[in-house]
Amino acid sequence: MTQANAIIVGASSHLSKEIATKLAQQKVSLVLFVQNPDDMKEFAEQLPIKVDVLPLDIENPAAIISQLEKVWLSMDGAHLVLVNTGLNGYHESLPWQLEQDIIDVNVSGFTAICNTTFRLMREQGYGQIAAINSIAGLRGGPSVAYHASKAYAQNYLEGLSMHAQRLKLPITITDIQLGLLDKAAMQQSKLWLPPLPKVADQIIKAMQKGKRKVYVTKRWRLVAWLTMGLPEFIYNTRHWKVKKKK
Ligand SMILES: NC(=O)c1ccc[n+]([C@@H]2O[C@H](COP(=O)([O-])OP(=O)(O)OC[C@H]3O[C@@H](n4cnc5c(N)ncnc54)[C@H](OP(=O)(O)O)[C@@H]3O)[C@@H](O)[C@H]2O)c1
Q1: pLDDT for the residue 2
Q2: For burial by CB atoms within 10 Å, which of 124, 136, 193, 210 has the most?
Q3: Could you identify the atom of ligand 1 that is nearest to the CA of residue 146?
Q4: Total domains in the fold of the chain
């Protein structure tokens, strides 16, 4: 295996398409896992190299494991697996089904992908697992299961990295702590909404440097530090509301 190759799991979002485009321009050969491969046909066809697009059944861990094993064999291993899957949602009444769906994608599915990839890279003798995670995992928040699932992902990646070191394996684990792009977009905040190519560039650079953890964009590192350091009575903005006089 000489040419660099990569698998992107959850490749249908704007961000992952931007990353896939940039990797394809660098002649990295790609396999993209998405929910609806037909929707990706046009995108895949305009890339400068041939790209395979395969269906992803993330809610079924056994299916993901066998999908990854099969594709691994067919492409003779991979240098990089980028995990970009994620599900978020909020409802005031915290319906169980929403929590279950988030856990299925962000915890069970995520673990099946990372665990299987780690095993395959261990057999291969090298590789890099990178995951686009969220600074939402640093503290609890209104999308209760989402915040908790991102904390899980962060700890899982740290554990994998420690395990690779214990086994003296050249497997790099990169945790990409993404700032809140959607929130910034919703608030039309120019200050916090970075252009997608810049976000993709910073992610690719961090992966190529083999970083263990990175905040994207860089300014979110400051928010992360503040978030981690704040006592709950300040972090929880509900406390800021002035009580109405009776
Ligand atoms: N966007 C943000 O503001 C933000 C901020 C911080 C962190 N993050 C995290 O960064 C990662 C990437 O986010 P993003 O904004 O690029 O994309 P996204 O809209 O959060 O979705 C990421 C990917 O997950 C896939 N996915 C979701 N549910 C799925 C399911 N049931 N089965 C199969 N695939 C499923 C999506 O596929 P489909 O499009 O086919 O559903 C998509 O390709 C996620 O982990 C996200 O939580 C996002």
Answers
A1: 58
A2: 136
A3: 47
A4: 1
For ligand 1, say whether the CB of 105 is within 6 Å of any of its atoms: yes
Least Cα distance to 160 among 191, 197, 117, 194 occurs for 117
Closest CA to 177 of 138, 209, 124: 138
- The answer as to whether 39 is a domain residue is yes
What distance in Å separates the CA atoms of residue 87 and residue 84, rounded to the nearest whole number? 10
Comparing CA positions, the residue from 218, 166, 225 lying closest to residue 192 is: 218
Residue 245 lies in a domain: no
* pTM, entire model: 0.94
Q: What CATH number corresponds to the domain at position 101?
A: 3.40.50.720
Mean pLDDT of 13-41: 97
Ligand 1 pocket residue status of 182, Cβ below 6 Å? yes
Ligand 1 pocket member 87 (CB < 6 A): yes
| pLDDT, tens digit (0-9, with 9 covering 90-100), for 63-94 | 999 999 999 999 999 999 999 999 999 999 99
Whether 76 maps to a domain, the answer reads yes
Q: Is the pLDDT of residue 1 over 50?
A: no
Per-residue pLDDT at 241 exceeds 70: no
Q: Which atom, in ligand 1's list, is nearest to the CA of 35?
A: 40
Supply the range of the domain harboring residue 47: 5-240
Sign of the alpha-carbon torsion through 216, 114, 59, 72: positive
Give yes or no for residue 38 CB within 6 A of ligand 1.
no
Q: Tell me, yes or no, whether 246 lies in a domain.
A: no
Task: Give the residue, out of 9, 14, 85, with the most ligand 1 atoms within 8 A of its beta carbon, to mutate for a pocket test.
Answer: 85
Q: How far is the CA of 233 from the centre of ligand 1 (A)?
A: 31
